[in-house]
Design goal:
Elements (H helix, E strand, L loop, with lengths): L3 E6 L10 H14 L7 E6 L10 H12 L4 E6 L5 H12 L14 H13 L5 E2 L1 H15 L7 H16 L8 E2 L10 H6 L18
Length: 212
C-alpha cells in the first residue's frame, strides 16, 4: 500500500557545511517506516531552494540517495516556477540520476480560489458569503497574488484563517451571512505584512474605507 507523505522543503545547505537536510530526510523516512524499518510509499519533497544550485555536490548526494532507494520510494519533486531555463536545469540534473516524468500544474484562478476558501473555511461553519463579500475576497486575492510576499496556497490559507478569525469574534450563529462590511478592521500580523503591497482601502482587513 502506498501512502503520500509530505517531507516538506529540502532546505539549501552551502557546500562547505554538513548536509544536515539529507540526515533529516532519511530520519523522516525511517520514522514513517516504523519498527520494521521497511517503507514503501510516495513522498513529496519541495526543492525550490535548490533550483539555482543543482550542480552543487550536496544536490548530487541527494539525488544519489533518492536513486539508491528507488525500490522503496516514489518521489514527487515540487518546484514553483514558470522560468523555462530553471525548469530545464532541474530536469537535466534529475535525468542524470533517475527516471522521471514532468507535470506542470496550473495555479487556480481567482474564482477557483474564492470557491476554495468558501468551501473549506466558510460553509463548514454553517455560514455563507454574500456576493459583495465574495467580490471583496476575490479582489484581495488578486492583490496579494501580485505582491512580493505572495507564497501560493500558504498566503491564501493565511488570508482565509484571518478572515474567519475575524468572523468568529462577531459571535455569529449558523445560517448567517458574511457581508463585505464584516471583513474589514483586522490588524493581525498577516494584515500588517500585506500592507506594503496592497491598496489598503479596498482589501480585507483594512478599515480605511469601510463598505457602506
Amino acid at each position: 500500500m502506498y501512502v503520500l507523505n509530505s517531507l516538506g522543503n529540502l532546505g539549501y545547505i552551502s557546500p562547505e557545511m554538513f548536509f544536515s537536510e539529507l540526515t533529516r530526510l532519511d530520519n523522516a523516512i525511517s520514522c514513517h517506516a516504523g519498527h520494521n524499518r521497511f517503507y514503501k510509499g510516495v513522498v513529496c519533497i519541495n526543492i525550490d531552494e535548490w533550483a539555482e544550485y543543482t550542480r552543487e555536490a550536496h544536490f548530487t548526494t541527494f539525488l544519489n540517495y533518492i536513486s539508491s532507494n528507488n525500490d522503496k520510494l516514489l518521489v514527487i519533486f515540487c518546484i514553483h516556477t514558470d522560468a523555462k531555463n530553471v525548469i530545464e536545469t532541474v530536469e537535466y540534473a534529475l535525468s542524470s540520476h533517475i527516471r522521471f516524468e514532468s507535470l506542470s500544474l496550473r495555479f487556480p484562478d481567482t474564482n477557483e480560489l474564492v470557491e476554495l476558501v468558501e468551501s473549506q473555511y466558510v460553509l463548514d461553519t454553517g455560514l455563507f458569503l454574500t456576493m459583495d463579500a465574495k467580490n471583496l475576497l476575490g479582489e484581495t486575492i488578486m492583490e496579494i497574488a501580485d505582491g512580493k510576499h505572495f507564497n501560493g496556497f500558504k498566503s491564501i490559507e493565511q488570508l482565509a484563517q484571518d478572515m474567519m478569525y475575524s468572523i468568529f469574534t462577531e459571535g455569529l450563529s449558523n445560517n448567517q451571512s458574511i457581508s463585505a462590511n464584516m471583513l474589514y478592521g483586522r490588524n493581525s500580523v498577516f494584515v500588517k505584512r500585506m500592507k506594503g503591497c496592497t491598496n489598503a482601502g479596498k482589501r480585507i482587513g483594512f478599515a480605511a474605507e469601510r463598505s457602506q
